[in-house]
Amino acid sequence: MSDRASTVNVDDRAVGVKLGRILDLIPGLVAYFGPDLRYRYANQTYARWRGIAPEQIVGRYVREVVGERNYPLIVDQLGRALAGEPVTYEYHIFDNDHQRRVQGSYVPDVGEDGTVAGVIVLVTDISPRDDLQLRIAHSEAMFAEAFENAPVGEAMVGLDGRVIRANRVFAQMLGHTVEEMVGVSVASITHPDDIERDLRELRALIRNRRDGYQIEKRYLRRDGSSFQARLTVAAVRDDGGEVVRFFAHAEDVTQQREAERRLIETNARLSLMTEAVRGGSWHMNIAAEQFETSEALAQFVSGPGTQPYDLDGFIAHIHPDDQDKADLRSLIDGESDRSSVEYRLQTRDGTHWMRCDRRLLRDAHGNPEQIVGVTIDLTEEHDRRTQAELQATTDPLTGLLNRRGLEQRLRALPDDCACGVMLVDLDGFKQINDHLGHDAGDTILVETAERLRATVRHDDLVARLGGDEFAVVLVGADLAGLKRLADRTIAALQGGFAACDNSDLRVGASLGATWSASPLVTERGVMARADKALYQAKAAGRGTWRLAA
């Protein structure tokens, strides 16, 4: 072999070694298949993916190396390449349970005579690209979802001041469809008096003086009417910092501004009202823990010239039994926004019943900020209400409880409170009404009520159920006590009524009794048992009592 030939062979070998190193550095899989689909070459990356050394791959049939799951995915494409057709396609490659998305390129190695000597294979992992595209698509979908379904108006505006995209709320605010909003000039939907201020802010954004701004402006609806909106605009910039479009967030605050106007008017009326009524107002700064009454309220409590009270000073004038009603903790903690309580206030001219309406005011972030209250004298109303409640639960003739009043008092008893029940019915009462008149009958009913009160204990309940029928509930009585009271009651009601002194008519009483381990309200059958015992007492000749088990 000549020196030149030797030099060429050495150079060729060097080039081949260098080429092999280059191929090993490629992040993709590089391989070469012969027409028999056996490996002639595989780079290090290919070997790592397969978990086999390169020298163990060369000479092996492709199906042995790629595996049974991958072989059907590539065999047809290899066949096309061996037929002389370059092939590029995407598919999933499987490494045991792991799967990755790849792009395969099969290039035929065509000789000078036109025959295919083999196939050069390049396989590139494109999973990161697909993941990125998926994340981009997901982000775009999330943006679209948030944009379209936002509860306030959203719009994208170009540098030419025209709407690129608008959501449904923004379009509806202006009386248009979403499609109609595309291309609309912002100036055409802005009240003429607010255009210049809006443009001034936009120019400042474009000149990089700020990244966004917030103003209130009036928009024009399709029908020509206007509404007040709070507009927040943010600049969208490119990588060079240049503004490419604007993102606008518009919230209709017409009702809010109207509510604020009404609140101002209401406060003015409230101020006039508090001057006209007995009482006054107060307020509390929660953060500073400062409480102060109005001068009017302080002077209502202690007379002319009295300076406003702090919290301790005011609470000192609330009746001791009602001071827990002055607790403001639920409002301070933000658990409730308003409350109303009634309590007794001790003033220089006596004790007054007051109604105190409290309201929590929050800051822009929704945190409790202040509490305002109005305290008004309702003594007369309270007295009327108390009297009305008393009348609703009291028999007007005898002053005893009526049926409704008895049921209310029974509901207030503990569930484990034993009770004795006596039903009392006057004997001979109908003859009194028939012969002596209803006035005489009423006199006997009143005297019966007095005798019953005198017979039973202080805590027992006495009621007139109607006509000449009375009920006595012996609260906490045992069976022996019930029997003693039944004997005493019958004795107290036998004869001697003043309305009968000049008559041959006589009035007595029959009584039915029973005992229950719980109040009547939880034992509906108790009254029926007492009524059955009363019927037995009347059948036994009257003027006596019977006990039902």
What is the number of strand segments? 20
Number of domains: 4
Spatial extent as radius of gyration = 49 Å
Question: Going across the major beta sheet, what is the strand order?
Answer: 2-1-5-4-3
Query: What is the architecture of the largest domain at the second tier of CATH?
Result: 2-Layer Sandwich
What is the tally of helical segments? 19
Helical/strand content category: alpha+beta
Average pLDDT number:
83
> What is the terminal-to-terminal distance?
135 Å
Helical residues, percent? 25-40%
Poorly predicted sequence stretches spanning 5 or more consecutive residues: 1-8
Please state roughly what percent of the residues sit in beta strands, choosing from under 5%, 5-15%, 15-25%, 25-35%, 35-45% or over 45%.
25-35%
Tell me, briefly, the overall form.
Answer: elongated
CATH class of the largest domain: Alpha Beta
CATH topology of the largest domain: Alpha-Beta Plaits
Q: Identify the CATH homologous superfamily of the largest domain.
A: Reverse transcriptase/Diguanylate cyclase domain
Q: Please give the largest β-sheet.
A: 5 strands, antiparallel
Protein name: PAS domain S-box protein
Domain PAS: 41-85, 139-209
Domain GGDEF: 417-549
InterPro entries: Biofilm_reg_signaling, GGDEF_dom, Nucleotide_cyclase, PAC, PAS, PAS-assoc_C, PAS-like_dom_sf, PAS_4
